[in-house]
From TrEMBL:
SUPFAM superfamilies: Acyl-CoA dehydrogenase C-terminal domain-like, Acyl-CoA dehydrogenase NM domain-like. Residues 240-391 form the Acyl-CoA dehydrogenase/oxidase C-terminal domain. Its cofactor is FAD. Keywords: FAD, Flavoprotein, Oxidoreductase. Residues 42-130 form the Acyl-CoA dehydrogenase/oxidase N-terminal domain. This is Acyl-CoA dehydrogenase family protein. One of its GO terms (molecular function) is oxidoreductase activity.
Length: 599
């Protein structure tokens, strides 16, 4: 493992500069003999351990400082930054990324609603290497937040905390515990507990839970036995705990997309390398049509996931009131895409994917096991589909009408030449519902009209040698548009019960339309100057891939695939992780992380 170019990354840097430094520091997981090399990761995974030195290494780099806002001395400038660095760690070892993600979940309520003293104390603790956790679930109640039995009874100037929380990430290793508890007569509240200030014997930890994946992660629990905490340990308003939990989850639901994107990158990289190196029937297996289809489909899914997740991460700084809907879209769609990519890369690897050695030191099995959690925590797939379904009728009523200020918000969400504005935590800016505020859905019509204008023969945007590109794009967009209009009209005029299976299917389809709009908007805001052709190929293919989720049998354009595969293959030996930057014009693509080939 190499040292950061400047010892430690600067407190304020562009997202691309930050990722470049972290990528250099962590090194190539295929060849590194450090704690983030796949060989070490697999060796210690078998023992249920983290590789020695892994956590210390990322702390040395300063990863933990991205859990603390800049205004409190940390490096968390935006959720976009957290997303980017988490993606880099996750593509090497998801367990380490989840450990810090659990800490962020635990402290977000402190940043959003805590007093100055609470924020300062927690910030100092995290910056010195402490961890935190979010103690909400209970053994008998799971996600039923109304059935919470843990109590905090007032006694003078203290609260007496009694009850058990399980399962909780970082429950044993964490010093700070944000506890969801009932204040008799006041309702559910969030309480900040500092274990270092509790009386001996007033709390105990439960044993680590054995899990399918994330081996070495602290998934355990905590019981409080009349633990006394100051009465002012309540975060925010007493009785607002349920609302605060739902709002805080909007942040981490979005950040979970980084775990999936990191896993997708690792799986696709392993599958593509194997397909190039493995020779059968006298040629590399990547020349087999079925293997080519799996690889290109997986890469398209990764691009779709990135186009969908990054604007939602930026929204925390730009338009936080939209997070209630957009975070659930990301939390549903991106892990689902990740699961499919891992499954398809398992098909590419064939028998090699079943071996705990050989290809990439046998890490593929860990990727499979670890990523299985992405669709479960911070709300299962069904929970997030229900959250989308409950908001969909109002969104549907304005799906074809642009709203005031939409252009400015969309530019801030999608223009990659600029990083997201700095986030100043304020729980009041998060909302429980978007109502009709959904610029991404409402922006489809204007975006399609702009596409048509830009791809006209007199604009110079399509490659003059490929006039069919614009026609193919128009046909794909028209197919989406026809289905989209009928879809939102039906929901607006006859909304289903949000708890019904029909509503779940509708919510899943909305996610596809949302992702399609994100792909179009990503192209529009990052197409480069008007003096040279902009690549329509990746946009055509991602839209066709998404249309195929609604209309099975939709084919990917044979005319677009060769160019797409060329860029995909070049990315295998290029610096940085796979992503849309490889397909963008040079003056719009973020700085690629300079690192060794194969990273």
């Amino acid at each position: 493992m190499s040292q950061p170019s400047s010892g430690r990354p600067p407190v304020v840097a562009t997202v691309a500069e930050t990722v470049a430094d972290l990528e250099r520091f962590l090194g190539d997981p295929l060849t590194s003999d450090g704690p983030f090399g796949y060989a070490a990761v697999v060796e210690h995974e078998e023992r249920g351990e983290l590789p020695p030195g892994a956590v210390a290494a990322v702390r040395e780099w300063g990863f933990h400082a991205y859990m603390v806002p800049r205004e409190l001395g940390g490096r968390l400038g935006s959720l976009e930054e957290v997303f980017a660095v988490t993606r880099s760690v996750a593509r090497r070892n998801l367990t380490v990324a989840v450990m810090f993600g659990s800490a962020l979940l635990g402290v977000n309520p402190v940043w959003l609603w805590g007093s100055e003293e609470q924020r300062r104390r927690v910030a100092d603790g995290l910056l010195s290497g402490e961890l935190a956790c979010f103690a909400v679930s209970e053994p008998d109640h799971g996600s039923d937040l109304q059935a919470n039995e843990t109590t905090a009874v007032a006694d003078g100037d203290e609260l007496v905390l009694t009850g058990g929380k399980w399962p909780v990430g970082n429950a044993t290793r964490g010093r700070f515990v944000t506890v969801y508890a009932q204040l008799p007569g006041r309702g559910q509240s969030l309480i900040l507990v500092d274990k270092s200030q509790l009386a001996e014997g007033s709390w105990t930890n439960r044993p680590f839970v054995r899990t399918l994946g994330l081996r070495g992660h602290d998934l355990s629990g905590v019981d409080f036995h009349g633990a006394r905490v100051p009465a002012d340990a309540v975060l925010g308003r007493r009785g607002a705990g349920l609302v605060e939990v739902l709002k805080a989850l909007q942040i981490t639901r979005t950040a979970i997309g980084a775990l999936s994107l990191g896993t997708m990158d690792a799986a696709l990289r392993i599958g593509l390398r194997h397909a190039q190196d493995r020779v059968l029937y006298g040629a590399p297996i990547r020349e087999l049509p079925v293997i080519r289809e799996l690889l290109t489909g997986a890469h398209l899914d990764l691009l779709i996931a990135e186009c969908t997740a990054l604007p939602a991460a930026r929204a925390l700084s730009v338009a936080p009131s939209r997070m209630s809907l957009w975070s659930s879209v990301v939390k549903y769609l991106v892990p689902v895409l990740g699961e499919e990519v891992v499954l398809d890369m398992g098909r590419v690897l064939g028998a090699r994917g079943y071996l705990a050695e050989g290809v990439a030191s046998g890490v593929f099995q860990k990727l499979q096991r670890d990523h299985a959690i992405a669709s479960i925590f911070e709300g299962t797939t069904h929970v997030n589909l229900h959250a989308i379904a409950s908001q969909l009728p109002k969104v549907a009523t304005v799906a074809d009408r642009s709203g005031p200020g939409g252009a400015e918000i969309l530019a801030a969400l999608f223009d990659r030449i600029r990083d997201a504005p700095e986030w100043h935590p304020d729980g009041n800016r998060l909302q429980l519902t978007n109502a009709t505020e959904d610029e991404i859905t409402r922006g489809w019509g204007d975006a399609v009209a702009e596409l048509a204008r830009l791809t006209g023969s007199d604009t110079g945007i399509p490659d003059p040698g490929r006039p069919a590109d614009a026609e193919e794009l128009a046909a794909t967009v028209a197919a989406f548009g026809a289905r989209r209009t009928a879809f939102y009209h039906r929901i607006a005029t006859s909304p289903p019960d949000p708890a019904s299976t029909r509503a779940q299917r509708d919510a899943a389809e909305h996610c596809v339309h949302h992702a399609a709009a994100c792909c179009v908007l990503s192209w529009l805001h990052n197409r480069g100057g008007q003096d040279r052709p902009a690549d329509l190929g990746w946009l055509i293919l991602t839209l066709q891939r998404l249309l195929g989720r609604l209309e099975p049998g939709t084919e990917l354009s044979p005319a677009q695939l060769p160019r797409f595969e060329e860029v995909m293959t070049a990315g295998l030996d290029a610096p940085g992780y796979f992503g849309l930057a490889s397909f963008l014009p040079a003056d719009t693509a973020p700085i690629a992380p300079p690192s060794r080939a194969g990273v």
